[in-house]
């Protein structure tokens, strides 16, 4: 396993991170979680990413139990705050109340006294950014988080947040965007802004919800039990990619992967890890052997010719509009009351 510093911080993370957004869902659960976490640790992964909202808060509990007994100092545990975790009007967003209460609840569920990175899962237009960043400063100064990060913020939002973080003397070190060879939205604005600010990328869905593994073939006959045939939290992201043109182009990369002795998944992960600013890629799994195989991508270096082949094959079907980032967060100042 390869390791890198996250942004300009001193925090060192594994190039492949384990994420349990979809690993711990209603169809899998605790046994799968334990097996996948063990496979991640055996592969040298030390970085674990979750969020308070995953599986209605059960994902944090499951990850905490799976990591119990592992030397805490040898791990980097990340979680997030923003989405609703209860029925009340203050059970969501980035208010001081919700951040401070959510931080305590996340620590309880994870079974730890601190997280290494506490992330704003989305941008909250209904709360003054100054209040949000001051609340994160409270969490850091209380020793409940070492660093802070954001996820799916626009370049302008990141710049404003970073300026406040500097004033408050707290370390905003990361951004977590969706990013893959099929979803290149952050390249135009977000990643350049982050590089200027010394903020590293923790990318999610680097395999485009499994499309870049090649398991979905043209014709619409999806593998039984795959994300395309389920109703879990990731299925809605697949719609735009389950088209014959996209799937044929992905399948066309198989000779490239075969020539390098890689799976298509390893090829896609190596591609995203080679992109400027990307520090770590978050992977999930439905089986532990997927973690074992995909983690090998951390040691793969693609030459320029291979990267160019991948780009040329997928560019016509890749999403690149930077405006897509803003769509992932609420856009109305009164969304909380809707």
UniProtKB/TrEMBL annotation:
<comment type="similarity">
    <text>Belongs to the shaker potassium channel beta subunit family.</text>
</comment>
<feature type="region of interest" description="Disordered">
    <location>
        <begin position="319"/>
        <end position="338"/>
    </location>
</feature>
<keyword id="KW-0560">Oxidoreductase</keyword>
<dbReference type="InterPro" id="IPR005399">
    <property type="entry name" value="K_chnl_volt-dep_bsu_KCNAB-rel"/>
</dbReference>
<feature type="domain" description="NADP-dependent oxidoreductase">
    <location>
        <begin position="16"/>
        <end position="314"/>
    </location>
</feature>
<keyword id="KW-0521">NADP</keyword>
<dbReference type="InterPro" id="IPR036812">
    <property type="entry name" value="NAD(P)_OxRdtase_dom_sf"/>
</dbReference>
<dbReference type="InterPro" id="IPR023210">
    <property type="entry name" value="NADP_OxRdtase_dom"/>
</dbReference>
<protein>
    <submittedName>
        <fullName>Aldo/keto reductase family protein</fullName>
    </submittedName>
</protein>
<dbReference type="Pfam" id="PF00248">
    <property type="entry name" value="Aldo_ket_red"/>
</dbReference>
